[in-house]
Amino acid sequence: MDLNETFLKVIEDHRGILYKIVRSYCKSEEDRKDLIQEIIFQLWKSFKKYDNHYKYSTWIYRIALNISISFYRKNRTLQTSSLPLEENIFTFQEIEIDKEKEYQINQLQVFIDELKEIDKAIMLLYLEEKNHKEISEIIGISETNVGTKINRIKKILLVKFQNSK
Amino acid sequence: MEHTEILNLWKSYDQKLEQALSINKATAQDVLKLKTKSVLASMKPIKLFTLLVGCVWVMLGSVIITNLFMYAYDKVSHFFIYSAAIQLILTAIAIAIYLYQLVVIQQVDVADSVLKTQKRLSYLKSSTLWCARILFLQLPVWTTFYLSESTFLSGNIAYITINGIITLIFTCISVWLFLNINYSNKDKKWFKVIFEGKEWNPIIESLGYYREIEDYTKENK
After folding, report:
1. How many other CB atoms are there within 10 angstroms of residue A40's CB atom?
2. Which residues in chain A touch residue B214, judged by CB atoms under 8 angstroms apart?
């Protein structure tokens, strides 16, 4: 398998991570299209010097979160433009899902959207059930600090859920 | 809702994505062919134009002033030659800082931890304020370059006094601005007057963001 194919396989295996990050940092469909292009391009640029000391997921999280946060901050003031690709990178198949559950998932997404950029990143990692060590490696704060931040963010989310009832 | 319920909700979202989501490999492949834009190509035309004008100004000015220093030092006004040299040096420093910042931003390793990368990026972006601080230091030389030794020999006390006062005021203003252009003054009226506009907003925001990140890394906050 050549480098190109290996890279695409890694991306495919971690498509869920990429989608969830893009979805959390961009509200509009057009912006999401721009952002995923930028993330994939930056991952590709970095793939040749990938440090296998870290897991693929850690490496992907770091790059995708860094690009998303920068993109989010830039987009608040400036417009960006994407490569004019005909197809979307993500494609969806229609599947049946419990309406009540779908509503709750959407609500959780809305609450996550309202968090500050770094809190949002920590929450996404917590929901993905990453342990404190991994979160600390990705975000760049101590494990103790990760614990403190998670507890604080969880409380915020629970209050939001309670208030929405 | 309990913590475990939130986690379970997220898991079901994950399962839904696992089934429904796929990557369009052909489109992803097209993205890989994207050529990296050079630093200059990614700049807005007006910024690029300003930068080019600045570079041409410094280069031409340097050639003229160096020649004057070397071949006509005794024939031209020393006020002019030193004022122009100071102006060119300060402009060159500001351009160098700006270019350095642009190049280093492109080289920041996005595979580093989130806070390290974001802190570095926000620091580099906010360092554009240094260009403004340095450029303001030029103010006094715009009140001295037209003077000459004969101005002082003519004995026109009123003219010399008024010019001296203006130079002193400009010097005080430029030093004061150099020392006070920083994030802690961002809400002051004079600061807003100088740095009003969408070009400056991201830079001021970057400064705030840098402080936010510094604060975030502190334990138990």
Report:
1. 26
2. none
A83 touching B, CB under 8 A?
A: yes
Q: For residue B49, what pLDDT band results from cuts at 50, 70 and 90?
A: confident
Cα separation, A149 vs A153, in Å, equals 6
Tell me which residue of B93, B91, B97, B89 sits closest to B66, measured CA to CA: B89
**Are the C-beta atoms of A25 and B118 separated by less than 8 Å?**
no
Contacts of B166 (CB under 8 A, 6+ apart): B143
What is the C-alpha separation between B18 and A14, in angstroms, rounded?
10
Q: Which residues lie below 8 Å from residue B73, measured CB to CB, with a gap of 6+?
A: B81
Collect all residues with Cβ–Cβ distance below 8 Å to A6 and sequence separation of at least 6: none
Best of B11, B23, B106 to disrupt the A interface by mutation (most A CBs within 10 Å)?
B23
Instruction: Indicate the residue of A37, A41, A118 with minimum beta-carbon distance to B114.
Output: A118
Determine the Cα angle at B117 with ends B111 and B119, to 5°: 170
Using the predicted structure, report yes or no on whether residue B38 has a pLDDT greater than 80: no
Q: How far apart are CA A162 and CA B54, in angstroms?
A: 58
pTM for the full model? 0.82
- pLDDT tens per residue across span A51-87: 888 889 999 999 999 999 988 887 654 444 455 555 6
